[in-house]
Amino acid sequence: MELLKLKCFYNPTRDAVGVCKNCGKGLCADCAVDVGNGIACKGNCEIRVKEINSAVMVNVRTQKTITIFYGTMGLVLIMFGLIFLYYYPRTFNIILSIGSFVAGFVMFIIVIRRARVIS
Fold first, then answer.
1. Are 32 and 42 in contact (CB under 8 A)?
2. Angle, alpha carbons 106-87-93 (nearest 5°)
3. Which of 32, 97, 106, 115 is at a distance of 20 to 30 A from 89, taking alpha carbons?
């Protein structure tokens, strides 16, 4: 069984060395330009691929910030629940304290799962 090789979209006689991150066309070494985190069609897709890379980096930073926020809020809710339970041990306050503690614990579990996905 013979393997088919991807050919360059612009130079069909040449083998492709990669695929454009924006349009998905096969590119030979002459038609491809390295834009950091991927390759692009020289002169056609360079700006768009740089924008894609920039958007990905913004998304990664945002996810890390959100994870830190959820972790902090989870700890605050856990501490709030424990302090409220210690200083105000009445029936309604116990329910409020346990609810706060559980909400904080759930947020902290979400942070642990998000941290695994991000890294």
1. yes
2. 55
3. 106
Burial of 5 (0-12, 13-18, 19+ CB in 10 A): exposed
Judge whether 51 lies within some domain: no
Which tens digits make up the pLDDT trace of 90-113? 767 777 777 777 888 888 787 777
Domain span holding position 68 = 59-118
Q: Say which amino acid occupies 117.
A: V
- CA torsion angle 40 46 47 51 (round to 10): 30
pTM: 0.58
Tokens of 20: 């454009």
Check whether residue 65 and residue 35 sit in a common domain: no
Same domain, 26 and 68: no
**Per-residue model confidence as pLDDT tens digits over 12-32:** 999 999 999 999 999 999 999
Overall number of domains in the chain: 2
The first and second tokens of residue 67, run together, are 């994870």
Residues 2 and 34 in one domain: yes
Which tokens in the block code for residue 31? Answer: 């038609």
Closest CA to 81 of 65, 63, 105, 62: 105
